[in-house]
Amino acid sequence: MAFEVQFPDVALAVQNVIANQRLNERSARQPDYAAQVAATTTVVKALAETPDSVLAKLSQGVLQLTGADSAGVSLFGRANGNRVFLWQAAVGLFEKYLGAVVPYEESPCGLVISTDKTMLMLNPGEAYKTAAQVQPPIEEVLLVPFHVNGQAVGTVWAISQGHKKFDAEDARLITDMSELAALAYHVLTKMGDLELLNKAVQLVAEEQLQFPLAAAVRPVTDQRTVETITD
Question: For the whole model, what pTM was predicted?
Fold first, then answer.
């Protein structure tokens, strides 16, 4: 699995934090397929029984499988014509940022969506204002895009805020989990206006997020209140 990428047209500050070559250079640990099957089963069960929890369950699986400090799912959409990401799921140290909305250009997810590439970044706060605000600081972030009908609609990500160093096995695991994210996204947005479905997810699917754009990361304790975010 080759991970090296080159983006000469990307800002130098962003180029300096991209570290995909590390995924090729670092020794990858052996796969634990039993653990992966268990995590996958939990996600599929949640999709069938408690769909409102499926992306959180998926994120928890990514956290456990990779040994990351934080993990989550960000969904691509629009607010007032501006491209944004909604942090639809976040577990671990990042849980306090659940439901935050951030501008496309201020998130590493933007480069992942625009290039449709798996991305490892080191110290992304040096290039992205949003990442710079996170505490504890982000040491590494590994992001994988997922697709519905051939279109990238979001990212599954894992974050190290300590000593964890991501390797090729982490990239493989997140890539596999991203397929479940795509399935969950497709199913949830087809469920219409079921009460358990976060309204924002439906609107992301239509690229018509109808709540004010947050200028920076803002903690939200209840996803159902995310549409009240204002500056």
Answer: 0.83
